[in-house]
Request: fold
Amino acid sequence: EWIELILQSRAQLCLDAGRPRAATIPQAELVLRLEARLGPLELQTIVAREWLVSTALQAGCAREHLDHARELLAALRELRGPTAEETIAAHLRLIRALSQAGAHEEALVSSREIAALGQTRSDPTIQVRGLQSEAHALLSAKLHAEAETVLRRALPLAEMHAKAIVLELEISLTAALVEQDKHQEAEPLARRCLDTAVRMKSAPEAILEASRRNLLYVLHGLRKSAEALPLQRAEVEALRRSAPGSGILAIELHNLAEMECSQGRLERAAALYQESLALTELREGYLSESWGETLQKYASLLLSLERPDEVLRLVQPALPGLLAALGASHRVCLR
Reply:
């Protein structure tokens, strides 16, 4: 049992250090040891497996732990029954894991099971949860119009029977509208969601971030750059905390640089382009499309600031790879 305590401590240390993916390694070993010693239906095993699945979802590596998500649901169904709160929660985690892993068809089937279960048992709360998870699966599959339809069905039910998740549904509906370029229709909803999230006591960070991000995308779509700028800055700062070194941070740094540039803050824009370029280069290398796009914008800005030497320093390390990738006729132009 002392090995299990060590594994638990290692996982917690990784989580405390902001490394959820690393935490899943000792967590998975802990689950296997508990299952071998106590069996899959013991509370200790179930709690450890639930911890692993939640961490994997947080780390974005649910694909690697889908079997654990399925086994957690099976154990809770047997112990608590199909409509128990813990079982529904496990079912929703499995659907999120399936969507994250790209298993959209299975996620849709599973979410419709929950909605049908709620309808059969005349439990609108379970039905709403099922519709919500179906909408999430549709959004993950990029079926945005279908997701909008499901969310519009879910909202009236939630208003009557599940007020606690109305805001979550409205955030998802805003995202579905944005993805369909319905920015005008989405704007009042996006503003209301952010206002509600800000006024909530102890609102989850994920709710605040999603609300802010939706309004940011709406304002981008409506070309309201001046109003979008503080939201874009907040988005970058949030990503610096939650996803340092990530591809999405590189993209949002690039977007912020463009906005700062349009407002005449050229030195600030140059620093942001530089950071975005370094992150993209680290993740994707010299020859990726996003690296080339950021390099072009950054180099143009440096030239306008009369800093050609910096442009040369940027391009020179990439020249061998670029020359190798281009045909002979293009090499002369590049030289």
Observations:
- The chain has 18 helices and no strands.
